Structure formats: structure tokens, C-alpha cells
Amino acid sequence: MSVFKIFSETLKFALNALYSNRLRSILSLFGISIGIFAIISIFTVIDSLENNIRTNIDKLGKDVIYISKWPWSFSEGYPWWKYYQRPSAKFKELKLLQDQLSISAKVAFISFFNSKKIKYFNNDIEEVKVQAISHDYRSIIQFDIIKGRFFSTQDSDIGNSVVIIGYNIYKELFNLDNPIGKEIKFMGQTATVIGVLEKVGESFIGENEDDKILIPLKFARKFARISKDSSQLLVKSNEDINKNLLKVDIIRVMRSIRRLSPRTENNFSLNEISLISRGLDILFYVINFAGIIIGGFSLLVGGFGIANIMYVSVKERTNLIGIQKSLGAKNYFILIQFLFESVLLCLIGGLIGLSIIVFCVMVFNIYFDLNFILSFKNIFSAVLISLLIGVISGILPAIFASKLNPVDAIRSK
Predict the structure, then answer these.
(1) Model pLDDT, residue 9
(2) Could you read off the pLDDT of 180-207 as tens digits, one per residue?
(3) Domain extents for the chain?
């Protein structure tokens, strides 16, 4: 018998068996569908979360070195009291670092504030993040402006009272009307809007990046204290060099600027996004493992259900198996027949579960403005898991059916 003939005959037997026991087949499909829905939906949520976090991290610059008071490694025994006594990054260190680095690099300064209220005529928003940045900040950190422009060299050098607003501020204060040239008030200051930032959403630390405004660093110095815990220096090499060489150069210059003796340890930290990325690798490994266990229980229940149904099916069709064998059906044909039925049952259930996930992803993305991603990897995993569950659940009942004695099988009732 040819392979195609075996395939067509087993498919026909499987479909007839499923159709003859429609209610039982539907209940079996339900168990597998729930299992596939559970595990693939968990993977989809985890992958979407990871993609969102890593996208936000990439915008901070993979090749950027942050000079700050605090190190980005909150391990056990973190000596915060020691780092608390360190001096914060200062504005004057920006120019000194630019001039003294032997490696060609861009250097920027950023300081963070909180404004209790930002106002435009009768509209106001509470608790807005203010970021004071130097001119080279945009050449180091990626962000897009959808309306207006970035700070000119004159804006940065003189400290003009201009501001670039986040998307939520643009939406809530101006109702998406053109804000360019209009004045807003915050922290006792009046500034002219010259740009609107592209909509970003929440960052990997849970803060909404659309609820912030950018102002020139020298403008901020006119009314706020710059040298505080939230200030940082950013360095990005202009050359394709080993980052460790740049670190050595930064340490040399910063120690010189702060006049540290050879025996005194550094009173600053050099941080990189890779530190966060390594932590995320471990975190998402643990989350994925937990997701496999949670989803695995659902699949285990569904698999036991399929195995039980297949044993019942073998018992019901024992007489038919005996007749098939007496007419010359080989053991492998009986085995393939029941195994194919089990696989087909699981595959249909898996595809139903996958279809529900696709529908949910589309609904959440369209109506709730979320960004869930159903990757090809997860689609392939759903199909592969369904096939494996079908084989594992059906193999023992299929072997049992294939080894039945035809005489005893025909006599059974």
C-alpha cells in the first residue's frame, strides 16, 4: 500500500470517527484549545512586554556610557549609604569632559525635575516630568519630533525659554491643535512651545514618556538647581572603538576633574544599558520558565483528556478493528489510524486556540491601543505542541489497538 493511500485511508477513518462522536470530539477539542490558548497567550504577552522594554532600552543607546552618582546594579548588599555621599554630576563637568577626553566623543548633560503643574490658559496638567538637556543630547539619544523642531544652537547656548512637549501634553493641553508658538507655564516660568515629541508610551520602568517636556539646560539653570541626584553626564564615542578604552579615558578625565588622589576610589559610576539588558535576560528566562509550567498544566489536562477519549474509542471500535485485521489490515495501519485521529484532534484544537489568540490580539491592538505581537515562533510553537500532544496522547491507545487479536476483537461486544 502506498504512503498516499495509507494517508488518505487513515484521514478518512479519523474524520469519520470524529464526526460519529461529535459531542465527545468537541469536548476533547475544548480541552486542547484551552491549553494552547493558555500557553501561547502567556508567551505572546511575555514576548510583547520584552519587545516593548528592549525597544525603550535601545532608545537609551546601547553604546552610551552614563556617568552618574548611583551604579545600576541593585544586587544584594547594595551599599546605598556609600553612594549617597558621592557628589552629583555638575554642569561645569560637561565642558571639562568634552575638552579633556583624548578619544573623540559627544558629551551631553541631563537633569530631571518634577513640575507640580503645567498650564496653558484654562487647561492644566499635574505632575509633569521636566528634562533639562544640553545641545548634544539628541545626537546621543534617539527620539523623534512630529511637529516643530529641536533646540537651535542659539536656544541651547543662550538658554532661550523654549520647550518641546510630550504627546500627552500636546493632546491634553492643546486638544491636538497646533501648539507651535504658543506659551505654557510651569515652575513659575513661561516658555514657548517649539516642538512635539512622537508618541512613545510607557518606558521599561513604568513611567509614561509622553508626560514629559524638554527644555534647554541653560534655561533650566535660570530657575532650578541643576547639580542634584537626578543629573547625569552621557558620553558616546564618535569612533568605532572598544568601549573599554573609552571607559578608561572617562575615568582618567573624571578623576582629574574631581581631583581624586591615586589611592581614592572613584566617586562616580559608569553605567551602560548592557547592565540592564543582562538583568532582563535572566528575568525573562525565569518568566518564560514559569509560563511554560503554568501553560503546561493546562496542556497536561487536555492531553489526559485526549488519551482517555482515545482509549474509549478503541474499546468502542474493538469489533471493527477485528474485522479490519481479518480482512488483511496490518498492525501499522491500525496504529497509524488511531494515532492520526489523536493528532488530528489535537491539531484542530490547537488551531482553534490559536485563532482565539489572533482575534484577542487584534481586538486589544485596535480598540485598547496596545502593542501585542503574535510572532511566527509562537504560531509555529502552537502547531508543534498540538502535534506533540496528539502523538504522546494517542501513541499508547494506538499501540493497544494495533496489538489486538483479531479473533478476540471480533468476539468482543
Answers:
(1) 67
(2) 999 999 999 999 999 999 988 766 555 6
(3) 3-57+278-411, 87-267
User: Which among 289, 373, 292 is positioned nearest to 50, based on CA atoms?
Assistant: 373
For position 289, what pLDDT does the model report?
86
Q: Three cell numbers at 405?
A: 487479536
- Report residue 133 CA to chain centroid gap: 28
Q: Render the burial of 338-354: b for 16+ CB within 10 Å, e for the rest.
A: bbbbbbbbbbbbbbbbb
Distance of CA 100 to CAs 103, 168, 198, 231, 323, Å? 9, 40, 35, 20, 92
User: Across-strand partners of 171?
Assistant: none
d(CA 23, CA 29): 10
Measured distance CA(287)–CA(381) in Å, rounded = 17
Q: Which residues contact 206 (CB under 8 A, 6 or more apart)?
A: none
Longest dimension (CA), the chain: 101
pLDDT value at residue 400? 92
Amino acid letter for position 58: D
All residue ranges of the chain with pLDDT < 50 are none
CB 105 within 8 A of CB 246: yes
Identity at 294, one-letter amino acid code? I
- The residue assigned the cell 485596535 is 366
Alpha-carbon span 45 to 253, nearest angstrom: 45
d(CA 119, CA 133): 21
What is the C-alpha separation between 161 and 155, in angstroms, rounded? 8
In angstroms, the CA 229 to CA 250 distance is 20
